[in-house]
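Input record (one chain):
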Amino acid sequence: METFNDIISGDRPVLVDFFATWCQPCKMMHPVLEQVKAATGEKIRIIKIDVDKNEQTATRYGIQAVPTLMLFRKGEILWRQSGAIPKAELLSAINPFIQ
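The corresponding structure, as predicted from the sequence alone:
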């Protein structure tokens, strides 16, 4: 089974959505992430991490607010932002890293 560290350590950028099921802004991000995936195709991988079910991972990355989006490649954090974000703003933030 692939671990979180396996996923974020690859060559392909990984956008991680740290979320909680009770969080309304997190729910608003779901369609935005689907649109971003449609726009970027196989250039990035998008995964969701439930902070309530993955407390160790959330703590390791200092997640204090949800949603928090982080972009990783080869285990390195390339970009990070907390709070809901519109599709256009998210794409412009991550595009420099996925070319």
